[in-house]
Design goal:
Radius of gyration: 26 Å
Strand content: 5-15%
InterPro entries: 4Fe4S_Fe-S-bd (IPR017896), 4Fe4S_Fe_S_CS (IPR017900), FTHF_cligase-like_sf (IPR024185), Helical_ferredxn (IPR009051), LUD_dom (IPR003741), LutB/LldF (IPR004452), NagB/RpiA_transferase-like (IPR037171)
Low-confidence stretches: none
Number of helices: 23
Distance between the termini: 67 Å
Protein name: L-lactate dehydrogenase complex protein LldF
GO biological process, one term: lactate metabolic process
Keywords: 4Fe-4S, Electron transport, Iron, Iron-sulfur, Metal-binding, Repeat, Transport
GO molecular function, one term: metal ion binding
Oligomer: single chain
CATH superfamily of the largest domain: NagB/RpiA/CoA transferase-like
Number of strands: 10
CATH architecture of the largest domain: 3-Layer(aba) Sandwich
């Protein structure tokens, strides 16, 4: 069983710990920088990238605005093709459905592919509590699972680990749940991949149940689509007898023609490739070809609430490419764990509070996990205006706590309002600030102030107040009224 995000601290505290980890910062900077450069190169090749981006945004916006119609169309098509559709309002209902489906097969284990949505609902823990072993087969997800860790990136869940760390995880943990790593395992990528391949092969050959996510769901035909780079998806989607796919309702697109747009946008934005090494599609069941039983669990889990927000609903356009993470200066220094969610980075900062609400300290802090530099919007392949959503959610988090009583920030802002509301009070405060500027800090910068002001100075550099305010200068030089 892996760790969960439950009980993690709010972003400021988690980020402070992450920034202090120099190895983590090195791993993140190297990985995100590499992906960022590759993406820029392949995007630059296309003269019509802006048109593709606009098309992707339009297709997603249209689908979301008619989501009820497309969901019904998708269910009809899946049923006609021999599959079964299940509807899950929340994580608990989705987990119960999957557990019951696995129990119905009589099996006690399953292999998994494309696990982000199942990570969201913490399916592995629900399966473990029902005595069902779930084996992650994506290389990065395998690393995270073996280390009893949590994902820290949408595309590369183990981005916070370097090769030497992965080697030690394999040597320490692989033998506990299957074929052990070779005693002479090195940190060469080829050797690590071979160790993972041998460890997973026996699970692929043995498992009769597979659990998947999906990148896209095509409403017209009831088809699901997975894009991946390792081939493990093909093993999961073709060898088991029962396939259970857990899919967020926002993954729908109307037709195969629409899919063509996203198969250009996604690989360039995520891995910096022109196309994915493996693109797997499946529609229902067919005798002698792949699984004999196919189930789709359509997951809401807060998505309907997000959809009801005219502005916030654009976050549901996300195709999970991770481009925004790779350009974010905040993510590059803190990593994904600081966000307390399976969805980290800029998109996580706007998606998670909409799915989970802003009642907890973790979720209320996420809209502030940004510099609002706008780089995330510039690279988003479906043109989600993440900075706009961040500002909107900040407003929401400020307004909601008033129902539970004032916070420290509210008290401070009321005090600031009282000062700024009277010219004489403001003048006195300015004179005091000018007088105190000489001992507030050195070299023109404010040092550490006593609590609670230390919460500000610990995280920011601010200049000391000038020795003379503009008001005093004006009176002295112009002799006028201020």
């Amino acid at each position: 069983m892996s760790s969960t995000y439950l009980g993690m601290p709010a972003f400021p505290e988690a980020a402070s710990s992450a920034v202090a980890d120099s190895q983590l910062r090195h791993n993140l900077q190297k990985a995100t920088g590499t992906i960022r450069r590759k993406r820029a190169e392949v995007v630059e090749e296309l003269d019509d990238w802006s048109d593709l981006r606009a098309a992707g945004a339009a297709i997603k916006a249209h689908t979301l605005s008619h989501l009820d119609e497309y969901l019904e169309r998708f269910e009809t098509a899946v049923t006609k093709a021999g599959g079964t559709v299940h509807w899950a309002r929340d994580a608990a209902e989705a987990n119960r459905i999957v557990v019951d489906l696995v129990h119905a097969t009589g099996e006690t284990e399953a292999v998994k592919i494309k696990s982000m949505t199942t990570q969201e609902i913490e399916l592995n823990d629900a399966l473990a509590n029902a005595d069902i072993s779930a084996w992650e087969t994506d290389l990065a997800e395998l690393i995270v699972q073996l280390d009893e860790d949590t994902p820290s990136h949408i595309l590369v869940p183990a981005i916070h680990r370097n090769r030497a760390e992965i080697r030690e995880i394999f040597r320490r943990e692989m033998g506990v749940s299957g074929k052990p790593a070779p005693a002479d395992l090195t940190d060469d990528p080829a050797d690590l991949a071979e160790a993972a391949r041998r460890h997973l092969r026996e699970k692929f050959l043995r498992s009769r149940v597979a659990i998947s996510g999906a990148n896209f769901a095509v409403a017209d035909t009831g088809s699901l689509v997975v894009v991946e780079s390792e081939g493990n998806g093909r093993m999961c989607l073709t060898m088991p007898e029962t396939l259970i796919s857990v899919v967020g309702i926002e993954k729908l697109i109307p037709s195969w023609q629409d899919l063509e747009v996203f198969l250009q946008l996604l690989p360039r934005s995520s891995t910096g490739e022109r196309m994915n090494p493996y693109t797997s599609t499946w529609t229902g069941v067919a005798a002698g070809d792949g699984p004999s039983a196919f189930h789709v669990v359509l997951l809401d889990n807060g998505r309907s609430s997000a959809l009801a927000d005219e502005v916030g609903s654009q976050a549901l356009r996300c195709i999970r490419c991770s481009a925004c993470l790779n350009v974010c200066p905040v993510y590059e220094r803190t990593g994904g764990h600081a966000y307390g969610s399976v969805y980290p980075g800029p998109i996580g900062a706007v998606l998670t509070p909409q799915l989970r609400g802003t009642e907890s300290d973790v979720d209320a802090s996420l809209p502030y996990a940004s510099t609002l530099c706008g780089a995330c919007y510039d690279v988003c392949p479906v043109a989600i205006d993440i900075p706009e959503l961040l500002v909107r959610l900040r407003t929401k988090t400020v307004e909601e706590p008033k129902r539970r009583g004032p916070r420290g920030l509210d008290v401070v802002m009321r005090g600031v309002g009282w000062i700024l509301g009277d010219a004489r009070r403001l003048a006195r405060v300015q004179r005091l600030a000018s007088w105190s500027g000489s001992w507030l800090g050195k070299a023109g910068r404010i040092g550490r102030l006593p609590w609670p002001a230390s919460k500000w100075t610990n995280a920011r550099d601010a200049p000391t107040p000038p020795t003379e305010s503009f008001r005093s200068w004006w009176q002295r030089t112009r002799g006028g009224n201020s």
